[in-house]
Amino acid sequence: MAAALVAALLTAAPALxxxxxxxQPNVNxxxxxxxxxxxxxxxxxxxxLRDATFQRARMKxxxxxxxxxxxxxxxxxxxxxxxxxxxRLIEADFTRSDLTGALFREADLRNAKLVxxxxxxxxxxxxxxxxxxxxxxxxxxxxxxxxxxxxxxxxIGQCN
Length: 160
Fold this sequence. Notes:
This protein has 1 helix and no strands. The chain is largely without helices or strands. It is globular.
């Protein structure tokens, strides 16, 4: 009986997200809600943010480098100068977000929604953008995925 209990505990599923845990590197905030919160400057590097929602959150200068934000929602979030370097942001939604000066170096943004997002001066060097929706996004001054091309002023929806 005791051996069966030990075996069950060792093979148990991973711990569920603790949405009340403080912002810190590698935190598990999967499926948590942080709508409208002020998370400016937080370090969420390597965090599990799958299916989490940060709608209208204020996250200026936040570090989300290496985070897993698969299908995370950052709709209308204020995230200037946030660092998403190396983050997995497949199908993430950044619709109407302010991402001025954000870093997306080597980030995976396949099928992400960046509709009407402000991306002025952001850095997409090495980012994967296959299927990303950039309709009406402001790409003025963006460093493009090749790390060399800089989008012209008034580049809306595509890098000119």
